From TrEMBL:
GO MF term set: heme transmembrane transporter activity
Origin: domain of life: Bacteria
Compartment list: Cell inner membrane
Protein name from the UniProt record: Heme exporter protein B
Pfam family, one: CcmB
TM spans (from-to): 26-44, 50-71, 92-120, 126-153, 160-181, 193-216
Biological role stated in the UniProt entry: Required for the export of heme to the periplasm for the biogenesis of c-type cytochromes.
Membrane topology category: Multi-pass membrane protein
One Gene Ontology CC term in the entry: plasma membrane
InterPro entries noted in UniProt: Cyt_c_biogenesis_CcmB (IPR003544), Cyt_c_CcmB_bac (IPR026031)
Biological-process GO terms, alphabetical: cytochrome c biosynthetic process; cytochrome complex assembly
Family, per entry: Belongs to the CcmB/CycW/HelB family.
UniProt keyword list: Cell inner membrane, Cell membrane, Cytochrome c-type biogenesis, Membrane, Transmembrane, Transmembrane helix, Transport
Length: 221
């Protein structure tokens, strides 16, 4: 447990040292959502109809923007090899690293969602469902994204390859999240979509850490 706490503290310290990279996803998220109403017009009904999809697409693209650095520095300076050779299970170490990345890179997007929901004319019911979908979907995106990063971490130019691998895997989350937000706007039940997203999160949480650790071992060889 002490080793995992040390890894968590190290990740937080390194993230806050690289503040420019830390702020890139947040700024991209804000810019995309701020520009979107200018493109489609200020109509309240149109903004409300597309608000869930706009926020979710912007969130996915923002997460991809900062995902590459998840294992990059550790792979470059040799820390990743030490992690995999340590007595602490590798799947726990990568789970801690993914959680730290979610905490510093993705949680700010969730915290900004109330302001953006008001900007896009979402009702409070729509906002709460948006918050549920973000809290269930963004950890899944982090875990799946970490698998893609671990597979491409040894490549010198993985910036274009990584989105091509990951974007198709995020389509189910995008469909169920926007469907839940649209259902509540039409006063229809949305428990099915939330349940599916929870099931995807639990399934990913069970399998992704081991897959990430194995992919990192393959990349190091």
């Amino acid at each position: 447990m002490g080793a995992l706490v040390a890894v968590f503290h190290r990740e937080l310290a390194l993230s806050f040292r690289q503040r420019s990279e830390l702020m890139q996803p947040v700024m991209f998220f804000l810019i995309v959502i701020s520009l979107f109403p200018l493109a489609i017009g200020p109509g309240a009904e149109i903004l409300q109809r597309v608000s869930g999809g706009v926020i979710w697409v912007a969130a996915i693209l923002s997460l991809l923007l900062g995902m590459e650095r998840l294992f990059r520095d550790d792979f470059t300076d040799g820390s990743m090899e030490q992690y995999l050779l340590s007595s602490t299970p590798a799947y726990l170490i990568v789970l801690v690293k993914v959680f730290a990345h979610w905490l510093v890179s993705i949680l700010p997007l969730v915290l900004l969602s109330p302001l953006l929901a008001m900007f896009l004319n979402m009702t409070w019911d729509m906002y709460w469902v948006l918050l549920y979908t973000l809290l269930l979907g963004t950890p899944t995106i982090s875990l799946i994204g970490a698998i893609g990063v671990s597979l491409t971490v040894s490549l010198q130019r993985s910036g274009v390859l990584l989105p091509l691998i990951l974007l198709p895997l995020f389509i189910p989350l995008l469909i169920f999240s926007t469907s839940a937000i649209e259902s509540v706007s039409l006063q229809l039940p949305y428990g099915f979509q939330i349940g599916i997203m929870l099931a995807i999160l639990l399934f990913t949480l069970a399998l992704a850490p081991a897959a990430i650790a194995y992919s990192l071992r393959v990349s190091l060889n």
